[in-house]
Amino acid sequence: MKIDYDNSGHLKLCLLCEGVSLNKKTRSLVGKKYAENRYPYGRSNKVEDGLFSLPSEIVLPNDVVVGVHLRDKAPWSIKLGRKEKMELFHRDKKIANVDFAPRPGFFDKELPDKTLCQKIVVMYGLYSLSFFNRGWCYYFWINKACKFCSLNPTRDDAGKGNVAIILPDMARQAARVAFANEKKIKHIDYSAGAHENNDLGVKLQLDLVKAVKKESPDKVRHHMLTIPPDSWRLLNELKNAGLDTIAFNIEVFDRNLFRQVCPGKQLMYGYEKYFEALKKAKEIFGFKDVYCGFVGGLEPIESLLKGIIKVSEKGYTPALNVFHADPESSFSNKAHPKREYVWRMVKAQTAMYKKYKFRPIFPGGTRNSLDTEVYRGFFA
């Protein structure tokens, strides 16, 4: 492993593993020039960190975006320099000029019912419009939540100002406002907490796709992350509605660890059935347009590498997030992965992306994943 601080992908890897600190001056423009984090699904920082003064994402050189993970004694810091320029430091050495994600043009716009658009939809990365249409997960209610997830607790505090249930007409109106006021949108992402009924959960997301498609330009791609349905016909309906890509996240490849880390997914769907769903989805959406998500840092690296290779060989694109310990999750005290772990992860992913010509879900990348940086060749 050789980390190059002139390589933005390498910098992102380090920040995901080791965190960053921001002083008060670096937060002074958040909510004005920069986008504050709206917390539509979870959070990696503590309430006492001043959540609403934190930007949604750091923008490294070459438009590489990364999440803001505050860590005690982090070796990385961002300071406000001359002329309000942000500077990234490793200990006392300046590494690069950076920025934060710009405040979307639609954030303070109102819908006809006076609801602020930012309470319904946000930007994820620089180019993706993100709808999280169900701000709760059934698995929390039955004490079977994924151990790393903080969705329900986050929506009870930091994210309580967001609309909890986004209905189709509200989504359509928000999409109209967003497209009228933000020209960077290239992609729409649909996600939601797990529903008690797998088919109904997907059906509710399907209704959003149909509504938002009416407002979106033809070149905009549509992606969904969901718990798979029990009825395969719903996959056909999603495809026919205009969904371009779909993801089923199994999170951990090791079968026994899957049961431990994702008890709700095991109870309500099951490890084997996830792979059945991936196979069926590939028949409908095609090779490379079905994604299988893992969280790097939840299992031994040897197990994760086997998972990356297996799903790649079957034609499902591996989508990898880097674990962060959310304060209100069961894994709040779990150690974050080291540089060496994530380095091996992305090198294996790089090999598979090259071999099978995979592409990442999100244009421009996202805050906790290195998929786009792998695709762009930062780890070649």
Compact overview of the structure:
The chain has 380 residues and is α/β, with parallel strands linked by helices. Helices cover 33% and strands 17% of the residues.
Protein model, in words:
By secondary structure, the protein is an alpha/beta fold. The chain has 2 domains: about 10-100, no CATH class; about 115-375, Aldolase class I (TIM Barrel, Alpha-Beta Barrel), CATH 3.20.20.70. Helices cover about 35% and strands about 15% of the residues. It is built from 12 helices and 13 strands. It has helices spanning about 10-20, 140, 150-155, 170-180, 200-215, 235-240, 255-260, 265-270, 270-285, 300-315, 340-355, 370-375; strands spanning about 20, 60, 65, 75-80, 85-90, 95-100, 120-125, 130, 185-190, 220-225, 245-250, 290-295, 315-320. The strands form 2 sheets. The chain has a 7-stranded mixed sheet with strand order 7-8-9-10-11-12-13. Helix 4 (about 170-180) crosses helix 5 (about 200-215), helix 5 (about 200-215) packs parallel to helix 6 (about 235-240) and helix 10 runs parallel beside helix 11. The radius of gyration is 20 Å and the shape is globular. The mean pLDDT is about 95.
Note the quaternary state here.
Answer: single chain
User: Termini, distance in Å?
Assistant: 12 Å
Helix content: 25-40%
Order of helices and strands: HEEEEEEEEHHHEHEHEHHHEHEHH
Fill in the CATH topology of the largest domain.
TIM Barrel
The average pLDDT score comes to 97
Q: Tell me about the biggest sheet?
A: 7 strands, mixed
Number of domains: 2
Structural class of the secondary elements?
Answer: alpha/beta
Morphology: globular
What is the tally of helical segments? Answer: 12
Under CATH at level 1, the class of the largest domain stands as Alpha Beta
Give the low-pLDDT segments: none
CATH superfamily of the largest domain: Aldolase class I
Do you know the CATH architecture of the largest domain?
A: Alpha-Beta Barrel
Question: What strand line-up does the widest sheet have?
Answer: 7-8-9-10-11-12-13
Note the beta-strand portion.
15-25%
Query: What gyration radius follows from the Cα positions, in whole Å?
Result: 20 Å
The tally of beta strands, per DSSP, is 13
